[in-house]
Amino acid sequence: MSLLQVKGVHTYYGKIAALKGVDVEVNEGEIVSLIGANGAGKSTLMMTVFGNPRAREGRIIFDGQDITEMTPHEIAWLRIAQSPEGRRIFPRMTVLENLQMGAIVAEPARFDDDLDRMFTLFPRLKERAKQRGGTLSGGEQQMLAIARALMSRPRLLMLDEPSLGLAPLIVKQIFDAIRHLNEQEKLTVFLVEQNAFHALKLAHRGYVMVNGRITMQGTGRELLDRPEVRAAYLEGGRH
């Protein structure tokens, strides 16, 4: 069943077209990866789904409901969660306080259980629970950004560049955690990622974006095997 549908979406920054008629679909229980070069419009698509910036043309449908005109606040209450590019944790708050912020739209009675789940998924966060977010390493901040998003018990988790700037071992831990959430909890994940090898290896399906347009789509394996994808995104990129 289709959970998220992006239909013919055009997004602009002023007069500059960032997305030019984008069609993307994410089915319930899938991991879908969107790959492309820096500046292709990947992050813009993710932000447009979350209502900022707004789509100027086209529709965005979540679980059968048109969310194109909704505010980010309203969208969050539908249990769509985003871990944005650059992490954007609250640096002066402790790890625990960051996780409490993520739980605002969830049921309070489930907070302790959800906290235990996050500490099991990312044991490093349990060790750092009382530290301020700004004192964590880059990898720990990325784990915190994902855990904060998961505290809302999302039906759709949107991850923007989770591997950016991280050491290979930390990248593996984060991608293993995403796979675990999908396999064990059937979490639906929409992943924007420059690391095409990791993203397509993880994904059930993938899309390639070039200059604000979707140019290719297929299963993760199909895209990994396409010579043009290998040449553009994978040569020397298996890290």
TrEMBL record:
Keyword terms of this UniProt record: Amino-acid transport, ATP-binding, Nucleotide-binding, Transport
Keyword ATP-binding: yes
SUPFAM superfamilies: P-loop containing nucleoside triphosphate hydrolases
The ABC transporter domain, residue ranges: 4-236
Lineage: Bacteria, Pseudomonadati, Pseudomonadota, Alphaproteobacteria, Hyphomicrobiales
Protein family membership: Belongs to the ABC transporter superfamily.
Designated name of the protein: High-affinity branched-chain amino acid transport ATP-binding protein LivF
Pfam families: ABC_tran (PF00005)
Example GO biological process: L-amino acid transport
Functional description taken from the UniProt entry: Involved in beta-(1-->2)glucan export. Transmembrane domains (TMD) form a pore in the inner membrane and the ATP-binding domain (NBD) is responsible for energy generation.
